[in-house]
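W.,

You were right to be curious about this one. When I first looked at the sequence I had no strong expectations either way, so I just let the prediction run and decided to look at it fresh. Below is the sequence, 215 residues in total, followed by the output.
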Amino acid sequence: MAGSKKKKFYVVWAGGTPGVYTTWAECQKHVQGVKGAKYKSFDSLKEAEVAFKGNPAEYIVKKKAGEKPKKIYDPSVGLPIMNNSLAVDAACSGARGPMEYRGVWLETGQQLFIQGPYEDGTNNIGEFLGIVHALAYLKQHKYDQTIVYTDSRTAMKWVRDKKIKTTLDKNEKNAQLFVMIDRAIKWLETNTYMNPIRKWETKHWGEIPADFGRK
């Protein structure tokens, strides 16, 4: 299931080639399968550059088995509504590449649907398709009040506008994906829905439950 997700910067202290990288795809090349690799994501380039010059032990905190990331509770934000709610999220290998998306019931954690992977896509497209897939399912089953959570503001805007704005070029690899996009846009143009679409506040609530856990 962000703009889309906030841009991250990746520090590799130990791995193929240590350095600061601007995408997960670049970082992944230097840490995947590398024994003893040390790396971490940061919210700004400045933070990443400072961290790269420092001791990785100061930044990498090992979690105990079963320990969940700490959440920052803010009364002004509140808590997510867990019952009668659905979360959607997408995962993509790099800025563009194999992409998949899924929907999960918040209260039970049960996966409702999963689609993909599609060979050549983007995260934003997956987030958009995930929301429309959820809306179509909920309308079909008459779940008019069920909330749909997403962590992508871009996908929310695309749904509101009933159109997408992507730099992804159409080719033989992603032809099926573009058919799905056209179908989703057509559904939005010809259907109404009552379901609220809400932003999942990752900073306060942790990763969205539909997350694929590959960060």
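Here's what jumped out at me. Residues 123-140 form the longest helix (18 residues). And, maybe more interesting for your project: The mean pLDDT is 86.

Coffee later to discuss?

I.
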